């Protein structure tokens, strides 16, 4: 089987000739991972991964959240020896801002820090005009199509990360206040999420109608979950919106992988309601609270589980420990819907030798023993 054939067989719960492996290595450069195709230390690993691992070419489209009436203004200034950047959001005479300072994180603050900020943010007109959204995506499409054309499909699949409604709220909020708002402003936030869902649907449908990707990556479930907020908030802010988008993707015959870091045990049954094809990543203690066997007790064979060697193990483990982690996982997940993967992608621009060494051991151990399980 090719890596692509293993990927889709695993996501469909069908037999594979060996356990699929996903390193989260990007094919085209991204802002969050090292460009492994050109980095001199990663490049040999990348070349080997094309032979024996799945490549999911994760891409995204930047579409404005708000209508053109909402002004965005960037301000750079000095405060003593510090350089600060403020991003202003302005509408109908009212303004809020976020601030970043590379040299002093105490000078940073999120866009939303008070109930008044939240109420203003939720009152802003969300971009749901189909013509404007299509025009934005039309401008981005040629570059994406060039990448898609250059990506050899037998390596795996193009994978679009188009966001979920919760993303802009979480990314803009002071998280201490965010947790409180789940109790004090729930109805307002749910109504806002419904408006953002309309925008998301337009973006997803544009991509689905043009057959731009075979896999969709959803990174939202971890943004409103215990212990930050309650399970009931997760069921209001995440589940119905993710299920809506997953249903839409499935209606076009495409696959969905949901991503989740952290303590998943309490909410794992809710993923059965959302019905993704794959779930990355199940984290065992002490980082998370759920082992792979425990996860399979909940999901059975209804979802392909993807994971779950911790990225810190790539830094700290001996080669023997890394090989044991891989073989133990393969044994735990024998005859189950499973894709072997690290919990995170290659974000170290200057990787220590331990990371390169353990990537190699991870990959070669999986290739050697993956066909025995």
Please tag this protein with its features.
TIM Barrel; 373 residues; 43% helix; single chain; globular; alpha/beta; 16% strand; 7-stranded parallel β-sheet; 3-stranded antiparallel β-sheet
Summarize the structure.
It contains 14 helices and ten strands. With 373 residues, it is α/β, with parallel strands linked by helices.
Q: What do you see in this structure?
A:
This protein has 373 residues and is α/β, with parallel strands linked by helices. The chain has two domains: 3-65 and 126-372, TIM Barrel, CATH 3.20.20; 69-111, no CATH class. The chain contains 14 helices and ten strands. The chain has helices at 3-11, 43-52, 115-123, 130-150, 166-172, 175-184, 186-209, 231-237, 239-251, 268-274, 292-299, 311-316, 319-332, 353-369, and strands at 55-59, 71-79, 82-91, 94-100, 156-160, 215-218, 255-259, 278-280, 304-309, 338-342. Helix 4 packs across helix 7 (186-209), helix 7 packs parallel to helix 9 (239-251) and helix 9 (239-251) packs parallel to helix 10 (268-274). It is globular and about 65 Å long. The mean pLDDT is 96.
């Amino acid at each position: 089987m090719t890596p692509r054939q293993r990927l889709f067989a695993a996501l469909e719960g069908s037999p594979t000739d060996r356990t699929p492996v996903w390193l989260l290595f990007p094919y085209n450069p991204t802002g969050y991972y090292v460009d492994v195709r050109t980095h001199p230390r990663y490049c040999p690993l990348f070349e080997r991964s094309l032979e024996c691992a799945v490549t999911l070419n994760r891409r995204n489209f930047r579409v404005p959240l708000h209508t053109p009436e909402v002004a965005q203004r960037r301000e750079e200034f000095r405060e003593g020896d510090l350089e600060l950047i403020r991003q202003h959001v302005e509408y109908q005479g009212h303004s809020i801002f976020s601030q970043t300072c590379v040299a002093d994180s105490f000078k940073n603050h999120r866009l939303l820090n008070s109930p008044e900020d939240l109420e203003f943010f939720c009152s802003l007109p969300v971009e749901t005009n189909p013509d404007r959204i299509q025009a934005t995506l039309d401008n981005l499409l040629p570059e994406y199509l060039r990448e898609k054309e250059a990506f050899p499909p037998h390596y795996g699949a193009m994978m679009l990360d188009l966001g979920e409604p919760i993303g802009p709220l979480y990314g803009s909020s002071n998280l201490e206040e965010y947790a409180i708002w789940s109790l004090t402003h729930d109805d307002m936030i749910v109504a806002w999420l419904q408006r953002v869902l309309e925008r998301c649907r337009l973006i997803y449908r544009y991509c689905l109608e043009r057959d731009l990707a075979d896999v969709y990556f959803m990174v939202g479930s971890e943004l409103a979950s215990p212990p930050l907020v309650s399970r009931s908030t997760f069921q209001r802010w995440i589940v119905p919106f993710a299920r809506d988008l997953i249903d839409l993707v499935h209606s076009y015959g495409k696959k969905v992988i949901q991503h989740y870091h952290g303590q998943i045990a309490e909410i794992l049954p809710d993923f059965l309601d959302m019905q993704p094809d794959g779930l990355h990543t199940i984290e065992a203690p002490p980082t998370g609270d759920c082992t792979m066997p425990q996860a399979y007790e909940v999901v059975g064979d209804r979802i392909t589980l993807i994971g779950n060697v911790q990225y810190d193990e790539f830094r700290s483990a001996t080669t023997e420990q890394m090989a044991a982690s891989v073989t133990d996982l393969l044994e735990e997940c024998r005859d189950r819907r499973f894709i072997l993967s690290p919990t995170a992608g290659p974000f170290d621009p200057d990787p220590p030798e331990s990371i390169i060494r353990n990537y190699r051991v991870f990959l070669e151990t999986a290739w050697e023993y993956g066909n025995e399980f």
